[in-house]
Design brief:
This protein is α+β, with helices and mostly antiparallel strands. It folds into 5 domains: about 325 residues, Purple Acid Phosphatase, chain A, domain 2, CATH 3.60.21.10; about 190 residues, 5'-nucleotidase,  domain 2 (Alpha-Beta Complex), CATH 3.90.780; about 110 residues, OB fold (Dihydrolipoamide Acetyltransferase, E2P) (Beta Barrel), CATH 2.40.50.140; about 130 residues, OB fold (Dihydrolipoamide Acetyltransferase, E2P) (Beta Barrel), CATH 2.40.50; about 300 residues, Deoxyribonuclease I, Chain A (4-Layer Sandwich), CATH 3.60.10.10. Helices cover about 25% and strands about 30% of the residues. The strands form 15 sheets. Strands 1, 4, 5, 6, 17, 18 and 19 form a 7-stranded mixed β-sheet that branches. Helix 2 packs antiparallel against helix 11, helix 13 crosses helix 16 and helix 22 packs parallel to helix 23. The protein is elongated. About 50% of the residues are buried. Keywords: Membrane, Signal, Transmembrane, Transmembrane helix.
C-alpha cells in the first residue's frame, strides 16, 4: 500500500516537472496555432426537435435540441482549449440552416433560428436548397433582420418578433444571377478568418461556400429560375487559387451543401466526385477540409489530402476538425483530425441563453402549435423511416399520400392516386397522450406549404416515374391508391437497377399503359423535382390546398369519429415467386397470408366467371381445413376462361376492396385476390360440390364478430365464418326470401332454417342484427321478388364482399322465384266521429315535379290514404319536397307539391285536406340537394281545428342538415292536442355491420339522442304550461323501439305504442334482411290506455311492381278522448272497428284478423292489453262536460 502511494506521488511530481519544463519551450518556440472548426449542417430550424442520431456503430435516440447543441459546442471548445491553451475555434454551418422547420421556428419565418445561431457564435455559413424555399430574397431579409412584408405568412405573430441580423459571414461561390453573372445580394464567394493566439501568432483560414447544382431538381421553379448554378469543383478551384495567390491563404475549408457518404476510412458520393475533379483541375490545391451536407448522414473520412465531415442533421451531431496551422506556411501541418459527436443530455446542461430563445418562440406560437387536431391509433409516433433500402416505403409516407388523395376528392377531383417525395416528409409524426396529434406535430412533418396539384397521367407515365426511383436510387416516392411490383432489370443496365413489372389499383384492377389516371403531386414534383422528369410532361388539371394544410385537414377529418389507423406497408413489392396452395394464400385470417407476394398456383378449376376481368377458382386438392378457404377471386384482363377450365396461375396476392361507397377504404373488409400476370389452361376438371349453407355448415346466428378480430372463430363469429368461405362455392336450398329485391340483391334464409318469421315472411330485427341472414347477389335488377317468396331448388355461387357485407355471387338467370302470395294490407282502424285518427307516412321524396315523382306514385299514395288507412283525420308527412323537387332554384315552397297530393286524395274519394308546414331554408335540412324535404301535416278541417304551428330546432346548430321537427297545435272535440312530426337524422355515417371496425360504431345515434332531448324538453315545457294538453309524437325517427333515442323521447310523459304492438307485426322498414321499425307514434300516457295502434304493411316488404309507393310503411293510431256510443256502421266483428270491440278482442287473447291468418304455427300467443273501466269513463265525461260549460261561459 505504501509503495502504491509512493509511486502515485512520483508520477504526479514527474508530470508537474514535465509540464513545467515543456510549457515555456512551447510558448517561446511555437510555430503553429492549434485550430478547431466545429460544424453543423441541415439544422432546419430544429430548435427543440430531437431524433435518432445514426453513426457507423449504431443509433442513439433522443439527440438534438438547440440549447443542448450550444452546450455541446461550448464543451467541445473548452476541451480543445484545455488540451491546447493557445488554440483557436471557429463555428460553421454547411447549409439548410433554415427551411422545412418545425413550428417554433417556421411559424416565425425562422427568425428564432437566426437568433439562436448568433447566440451559439456561428461565424461562417453557406446556403442549401432549403434557403430557396420561400425565395432567396426572403432568406436575405431574414439574414439582415429586416421586418417582414405585409403578405408574410402568419404576419400577426411574426411582425412583433424581436429579430436580429445574422452575425455569420455568408459565402456562396457557385451561385450567380443569370442576368449579370454576379453573386446575388452582395454575398461573397469566400471569407478569410484571421486567428491570433495569446502569443501574437496569426494564421488565416479561408472558407469557400458551394451548393449542390441539383437545385433545379429540388426547388420550386419560380425560386431558382433567375439563377445559374456553376460546377462545384471548377468554382472551388477558381477561388482556392485566388485565396492562395492573392490572399496568401493556404488553410482552406469548403462549406459544401453537397452529399457525402462514409465508406470505411474514406468517403463516396458527390463530395468525393467533387474532390476528385478538383484534384484533376489543380493537383496542388490546398483544400484541407470539407463540411458537407444535404443527405443528412454521418461522414468522417479522408479523400486524398482532404478531411470530409458531415454531422448528420437537425443539430443531432457536431462535426469537428482539429489541426495545427503553421505560421510560416499558413497551412495545416497535416490533414486535420476529425470526429462527429452526438448531441445528447449526457453530461450536458442546456444553454440558458439559447433555451430562453427557444422558450420565447414556443410561447409565441403556443396557441397554434398545441392545438389538438386529431388522433391516430399508435403509441408515440408514426415514423417516416423507410422499411429497407430497396422498397423505401414508410408508414408516415402512406398516411400522408392517403390524406392527399382523400382531400383531393373532397375538393372535387376524382383522383386515382397520390405521390409525394421522401424529401418532403421532414419529421416523424410525434404523438401525445392517447395518440393525440397537435398542429405543430403535423406541421413539422409537412412544413413546406407546397401546392398540391392534380395532373393527368397515362399508365406509361406512371411506370416511368416509378422506375425513375431506381435510376440512381437517391430519391424515392411515397404512394397511395396503387401498388406495384418491381424486379431486377433483365438488361443488367447499371443505371437502371430495377424495372416495374406490374401496377395495380387498390380495387384490384391493373394500371394499363394507355389508361388515363388523375394523380395528386406537389408542385415541386410537377417541376421535375428530385429528378422525376416524368412529371414534367403531365397535363395539369388543377390545384388544391398546400401540403401542410391538406395534412392537417385530413387528420381533422379522419379523426372526427375515431382514431385514424396507421396504413400498412406493402405498396411497393420486390418480385419474389413461390408455389402456394389456395388455402395457404387465404390463411386463418381476414388478410391473406401471402399478401404482396408473387406466387404460382397450380391445380385450380374455374368455378364462376364474374366478368371479362374477374373469375373465381377453387383448389382441386383442398387442405381439408374448414377454417381456410379453398377458393379465391382472380383478376386478369380479357381472361377468356370458362367454368370447368383447369388452370395454372402466376401473379401477386393482393387485398383489394370490392365495390362500395366512397369511404370503403376506411370501413370495409378486403377480398383476397390474385392479380394474375399469367393464366395457363392445362385442361378441364370437375367443379367441386358447393358447401350447402344450412346443411353442411350453418351461419352463426348470435354474433357478427364478438372479439374485435382477436380470434379467428368461424364457428362463432359470422364475419369469420364468411371469411373461411371467401371465394368458395356455397349453395342455398329453397331459400326463403325475407324482403324485396333491390339492386339485384336478395336477403334470404335457407329452406332448412327454423327461425320464426313474422306474418309477412320476414325476420324481425334483433339486437344482434340476425347474422344468419344470407345476401345473394343475382345481378338482375329486374328480378321480381318480395317477402314470403321462395327460390325454387338450389342456387350456388362463390362468396364475395362488397358494399360493407359478404354476399354470394350467383350466375345470371340462375334464380327462379316461387310466389308466396303476400298481399298488401288495410288498417283495422275505422273512422269514428268521437275518435281521432292520426297517421304517419314517409312518402319518400314527393314533389309536384312529374319527372321525379310519377303520377302512378301519387295515385298509389292517395289511394292508400283513402282505402288502406281510411282517411285519417291528421297525417304526418315525411319527405315532402319543394314544388320542383331536386331542381335547386333556391325556392323552398311546397304548396304545389301538397296540392298535387290533396287533389289526388279527393279524386280517390277522400276528404279535402289542408296542408301546413314550416318551409326550410334552402339546402339546410338534408336530403337531396335542392329538394328541401321537410315535415308537414295534412288535416281534415271538418274533423279537427288547426290553431298554430312552429318548427322545433329552427336556428339551432344541432338541427343543421336535419329536418326540423314540426309542432302543430290542434283541437278535437274541445280537447287541445300537440302533434309533433319528426324526421331525425339518418344513419348515414354509421360503420357497416359487417365492416372492418368491430363492433361497428353508430356515430349518428349521438346526434339523434341530442335531437331527442331537445324535442323532449319542448314537450315538457308545453305540458307544464298547459297540463290539460295531450301530446302525440309521430314520424320517421331513424331508430329502433329499443334505442336510447326513443327512450329519451318517451321520458315520463309519453308511451311508444310500437312497444305495445304485437312483436310479430312490429316493423315499418326493410334493410339488409331485417324487418325493423323506424316509424313510431308516441302518445300521452293517459291516451295510451285506450289507443288503438296499427302498422299497415303496404310498402316495406314489396317492390314497386307489387304496388309499393314508398320504402316505409305508414303507422296509425286511433285515440279516444271521451266515451261515445259506437255508431251502427262502426261495428265489424272481423275488423274490431271500435275501440271497445278491439279491446274485447285483446282481452280474449285474440289477434286482429291480418295477424291471425298469417302467423306461422310456432307463433307467439298475444295477450289482451287494455281493460275499460266504466267508472273512469263516466268520471272523464263529467270532467269534459264541466270544462265545456266553463268554456262557453
Amino acid at each position: 500500500m505504501k509503495m502504491k502511494k509512493l509511486t502515485k506521488h512520483l508520477l504526479v511530481a514527474g508530470a508537474v516537472l514535465s509540464f513545467g519544463c515543456f510549457a515555456p519551450k512551447i510558448l517561446a518556440e511555437q510555430t503553429t496555432v492549434p485550430v478547431q472548426v466545429l460544424g453543423v449542417n441541415d439544422f432546419h430550424g430544429a430548435l427543440s426537435t430531437t431524433g435518432s442520431y445514426y453513426y457507423p456503430g449504431g443509433k442513439i435516440s433522443g439527440a438534438g435540441g438547440a440549447a443542448l447543441l450550444s452546450s455541446k459546442l461550448n464543451q467541445m471548445q473548452a476541451n480543445f482549449v484545455a488540451n491546447h491553451p493557445t488554440g483557436q475555434t471557429l463555428r460553421v454551418s454547411a447549409g439548410d440552416m433554415v427551411g422545412a422547420s418545425p413550428a417554433n421556428s417556421g411559424l416565425l419565418q425562422d427568425e428564432p433560428t437566426i437568433k439562436a445561431f448568433n447566440a451559439m457564435n456561428f461565424t461562417v455559413g453557406t446556403i442549401g436548397n432549403h434557403e430557396f424555399d420561400e425565395g432567396l430574397a426572403e432568406f436575405n431579409r431574414i439574414l439582415l433582420g429586416q421586418a417582414p412584408s405585409a403578405d408574410s405568412n402568419f404576419l400577426d405573430i411574426v411582425k412583433s418578433y424581436p429579430r436580429e441580423a445574422s452575425k455569420m459571414d455568408l459565402v456562396i461561390a457557385n451561385l450567380v444571377n443569370k442576368s449579370d453573372g454576379k453573386i446575388p445580394f452582395g454575398w461573397h464567394p469566400y471569407t478569410v478568418k484571421t486567428l491570433t493566439d495569446a502569443n501574437g501568432n496569426s494564421v488565416k483560414v479561408g472558407f469557400i461556400g458551394v451548393v449542390t447544382t441539383e437545385i433545379p431538381d429540388l426547388v420550386l421553379r419560380k425560386n431558382w429560375q433567375d439563377y445559374q448554378f456553376l460546377d462545384e469543383a471548377e468554382t472551388i478551384a477558381k477561388y482556392e487559387k485566388e485565396l492562395r495567390e492573392n490572399q496568401k491563404v493556404n488553410a482552406i475549408v469548403v462549406l459544401a451543401h453537397v452529399p457525402s457518404v462514409q465508406s470505411g476510412e474514406t468517403t463516396t458520393g458527390a463530395v468525393a466526385d467533387m474532390l476528385a475533379k478538383l484534384a484533376t483541375i489543380d493537383p496542388n490545391h490546398t483544400v484541407d477540409a470539407v463540411f458537407a451536407g444535404h443527405n443528412h448522414v454521418y461522414t468522417n473520412g479522408v479523400n486524398g489530402k482532404t478531411r470530409v465531415m458531415q454531422s448528420t442533421s437537425q443539430g443531432k451531431g457536431v462535426a469537428e476538425i482539429t489541426g495545427e496551422i503553421d505560421v510560416a506556411t499558413q497551412d495545416f501541418v497535416k490533414v486535420p483530425d476529425g470526429q462527429v459527436v452526438p448531441v445528447t443530455k449526457e453530461n450536458l446542461t442546456p444553454d440558458e441563453k439559447v433555451a430562453a430563445i427557444v422558450a420565447d418562440a414556443d410561447n409565441r406560437i403556443a396557441d397554434e402549435q398545441n392545438k389538438v387536431i386529431g388522433a391516430v391509433d399508435a403509441d408515440t409516433m408514426v415514423t417516416r423511416e423507410v422499411n429497407d433500402n430497396v422498397q423505401r416505403e414508410s408508414p408516415l409516407g402512406n398516411l400522408i399520400t392517403d390524406g392527399q388523395r382523400v382531400m383531393a376528392k373532397e375538393a372535387g377531383y376524382d383522383v386515382d392516386f397520390a405521390m409525394t417525395n421522401n424529401g418532403g416528409i421532414r419529421a416523424d409524426l410525434l404523438l401525445g397522450k392517447d395518440g393525440m396529434i397537435t398542429w405543430g406535430a403535423a406541421q413539422a412533418v409537412q412544413p413546406f406549404g407546397n401546392i398540391l396539384q392534380v395532373v393527368e397521367m397515362t399508365g406509361a407515365q406512371i411506370k416511368e416515374v416509378l422506375e425513375q426511383q431506381y435510376d440512381d436510387e437517391k430519391y424515392f416516392l411515397q404512394i397511395s391508391g396503387l401498388s406495384y411490383t418491381f424486379t431486377e432489370n433483365p438488361t443488367g443496365d447499371a443505371n437502371q437497377k430495377y424495372v416495374v413489372e406490374s401496377m395495380t389499383k387498390e380495387d384490384g384492377n391493373p394500371i394499363t399503359p394507355e389508361g388515363k389516371y388523375k394523380v395528386v403531386i406537389n408542385d415541386f414534383l410537377f417541376g421535375g423535382g428530385d429528378g422525376f422528369k416524368g412529371f414534367t410532361n403531365t397535363k395539369l388539371l388543377g390545384a388544391i390546398d398546400p401540403d401542410t394544410e391538406t395534412f392537417v385537414n385530413y387528420i381533422q377529418k379522419s379523426s372526427a369519429k375515431d382514431k385514424m389507423a396507421v396504413p400498412a406497408l406493402g405498396r411497393k413489392l420486390l418480385y419474389q415467386e413461390r408455389v402456394a396452395k389456395v388455402g395457404e394464400i387465404q390463411g386463418h385470417d381476414h388478410l391473406g397470408a401471402f399478401t404482396h407476394q408473387n406466387v404460382t398456383v397450380k391445380d385450380v378449376v374455374v368455378t364462376a366467371v364474374e366478368n371479362s376481368s374477374r373469375f373465381y377458382v377453387q383448389d382441386l386438392h383442398p387442405d381439408g381445413d374448414i377454417t381456410t378457404s379453398d377458393g379465391m377471386s382472380v383478376y386478369f384482363k380479357n381472361h377468356n376462361v370458362k367454368v370447368g377450365d383447369q388452370l395454372e396461375l402466376k401473379g401477386t396476392v393482393a387485398e383489394v376492396f370490392g365495390s362500395g361507397y366512397a369511404e370503403k377504404e376506411q370501413t370495409d373488409l378486403t377480398i383476397t385476390q390474385l392479380q394474375a400476370t399469367q393464366v395457363t389452361k392445362v385442361g378441364t376438371a370437375q367443379v367441386p360440390a358447393p358447401v350447402v349453407l344450412g346443411v353442411d355448415r350453418k351461419v352463426p346466428s348470435q354474433h357478427i364478430e364478438n372479439d374485435g378480430f382477436v380470434n379467428f372463430d368461424p364457428a362463432d363469429d359470422a364475419l369469420d365464418f364468411w371469411e373461411s368461405l371467401e371465394g368458395m362455392l356455397v349453395a342455398v336450398n329453397h331459400a326463403k326470401i325475407l324482403g324485396p329485391q333491390k339492386n339485384g340483391e336478395l336477403f334470404v334464409l335457407p329452406g332448412e332454417s327454423t327461425d320464426i318469421l313474422n306474418h309477412s315472411g320476414g325476420l324481425l330485427l334483433d339486437e344482434d342484427f340476425n347474422p344468419q341472414i344470407i345476401a345473394l347477389s343475382t345481378g338482375d335488377r329486374k328480378l321480381r321478388a318480395k317477402a314470403k317468396d321462395t327460390i325454387e331448388g338450389q342456387v350456388a355461387g362463390p362468396v364475395t364482399y362488397s358494399y360493407g357485407m359478404y354476399k354470394v355471387y350467383l350466375p345470371k338467370n340462375s334464380v327462379k322465384i316461387k310466389d308466396g302470395k303476400l298481399a298488401r294490407e288495410k288498417t283495422t282502424i275505422k273512422a269514428s266521429k268521437d275518435k281521432l285518427t292520426i297517421a304517419s307516412y314517409n312518402i319518400e321524396n314527393f314533389s309536384a315535379n312529374k319527372e321525379s315523382t310519377s303520377d302512378e306514385k301519387v295515385q298509389r299514395i292517395a289511394q292508400s290514404f283513402v282505402n288502406d288507412l281510411n282517411a285519417p283525420d291528421i297525417i304526418t308527412l315525411l319527405e315532402m319536397q319543394d314544388n320542383n323537387g331536386p331542381i335547386d332554384d333556391g325556392n323552398t315552397d311546397a304548396t304545389q307539391s301538397a296540392k298535387r297530393l290533396i287533389e289526388a286524395i279527393e279524386k280517390a274519394g277522400g276528404p279535402s285536406y289542408q296542408y301546413i308546414d314550416v318551409a326550410p331554408e334552402n339546402n339546410q335540412d338534408g336530403g337531396a340537394p335542392g329538394a328541401n324535404i321537410r315535415v308537414g301535416f295534412l288535416y281534415n278541417p271538418k274533423r279537427v281545428d288547426y290553431n298554430t304551428s312552429e318548427a322545433i330546432g329552427k336556428g339551432d346548430e344541432l338541427f343543421k342538415d336535419t329536418r326540423k321537427s314540426l309542432a302543430g297545435y290542434f283541437t278535437f272535440n274541445g280537447q287541445k292536442l300537440l302533434l309533433i312530426g319528426n324526421h331525425l337524422n339518418s344513419k348515414r355515417g354509421d360503420q357497416p355491420l359487417y365492416g372492418s371496425h368491430q363492433p361497428a360504431s353508430f356515430a349518428s345515434a349521438m346526434k339523434r339522442d341530442q335531437l331527442a332531448q331537445t324535442i323532449a324538453t319542448y314537450v315538457d315545457k308545453a305540458v307544464k304550461s298547459d297540463p290539460s294538453l295531450k301530446v302525440v309524437m309521430t314520424g320517421d325517427f331513424n331508430d329502433f323501439e329499443f334505442s336510447n333515442t326513443l327512450a329519451i323521447l318517451e321520458g315520463k310523459q309519453l308511451v311508444n305504442l310500437v312497444k305495445t304492438h304485437p312483436a310479430e307485426d312490429r316493423y315499418s322498414y326493410f334493410y339488409l334482411g331485417n324487418s325493423e321499425t323506424l316509424d313510431h307514434i308516441l302518445v300521452s300516457k293517459d291516451l295510451a290506455k285506450n289507443a288503438v295502434f296499427d302498422m299497415i304493411h303496404i310498402n316495406a316488404m314489396f317492390m314497386q311492381e307489387d304496388g309499393r309507393a314508398s320504402d316505409h310503411d305508414p303507422v296509425m293510431v286511433q285515440l279516444t278522448f271521451k266515451k261515445q256510443k259506437p255508431d251502427a256502421g262502426e261495428k265489424d266483428k272481423d275488423k274490431g272497428d271500435s275501440t271497445d270491440n278491439q279491446d274485447k278482442k285483446n282481452n280474449n287473447g285474440k289477434l286482429p284478423k291480418k295477424l291471425k291468418k298469417d302467423l306461422p304455427a310456432a307463433g307467439t300467443k298475444i295477450m289482451g292489453s287494455l281493460v275499460l273501466i266504466g267508472v273512469v269513463l263516466i268520471g272523464a265525461a263529467i270532467i269534459i262536460r264541466v270544462y265545456n260549460t266553463k268554456k262557453a261561459k
